Amino acid sequence: MGQIRTLQAADGHHFAAWETERSAHPYALVVLQEIFGVNHHIRKVCDRFAQAGFHVIAPALFDRVERDVELDYTTDGVQKGLALRAQIPLAKTLQDIQAAAKALNARKVGVIGYCWGGTLAWEAATHTDDFAAAVSWYGGGIAAHCNETPRCPVQLHFGEQDTSIPHTDVAAIRAAHPELELYVYDGAEHGFGCEERASYNAQAFLQAQERSIAFLKSTLNP
């Protein structure tokens, strides 16, 4: 159902992206990867949104330093992903995200991200004007930049037992932006939306997915 296509960022960088669509796709969405690359899980995420009526593109954000990256959910995978991420300036990553948004060729485009991608969804919402809606799942870097102002509606999802995102971080985000939709899922850990991780929480995933789709469709309504 999906295919790889090549996109070009504003600085001339060419990179791969996973595109998924069906015959009827009234909504446009950029999906932002975890630190594990555009792997099997992210492609499955894209497929789910395509089934829900979205034309989806997931840019391969690691292509600036290494191509065809698909990491496992292991300690080694985490360490390699963190190392790759550290080599890419945020400004360059945002250029890739903006190129993905433009490639969808839609009047309104949404963005959703997971883990690192969740933080990037926030950065895209606060640093660009390319998106009409942004959703973040367990974005660990948002609290450090919570004083920034989103340029579009934003919805945030966190796990109550996420040891990598302290409760104080979530509280800081709430205090800075009481107007935002922000959900915390009881008993959910980091990565609760990924079936390939031990932290997968089916109940939290289903609730967050339902809320994300409803939010995106309401704000992206053609």
Low-pLDDT ranges: none
- N-to-C span: 24 Å
The strand order across the widest sheet is: 1-2-4-3-5-6-7-8
Number of strands: 8
What value does the Rg take, in angstroms? 16 Å
Could you say which structural class the secondary elements and strand pairing correspond to? Answer: alpha/beta
Share of β-strand residues? 15-25%
- Average of pLDDT: 96
Major sheet attributes: 8 strands, mixed
The DSSP helix count reads 6
- Silhouette: globular
Residue share in helix = 25-40%
SSE series: EEEHEHHEHEEHEH
Explain briefly what this protein structure is:
The chain is an alpha/beta fold and 222 residues long.
Q: Could you explain how this protein is built, in words?
A:
It is a single chain. With 222 residues, the chain is an alpha/beta fold. The chain has 6 helices and 8 strands. The chain has helices at 40-51, 75-86, 90-103, 116-127, 167-176, 202-220, and strands at 2-8, 14-20, 27-32, 54-59, 109-114, 133-137, 154-159, 181-185. It has an 8-stranded mixed sheet, with helices on both faces. Helix 3 packs across helix 4.
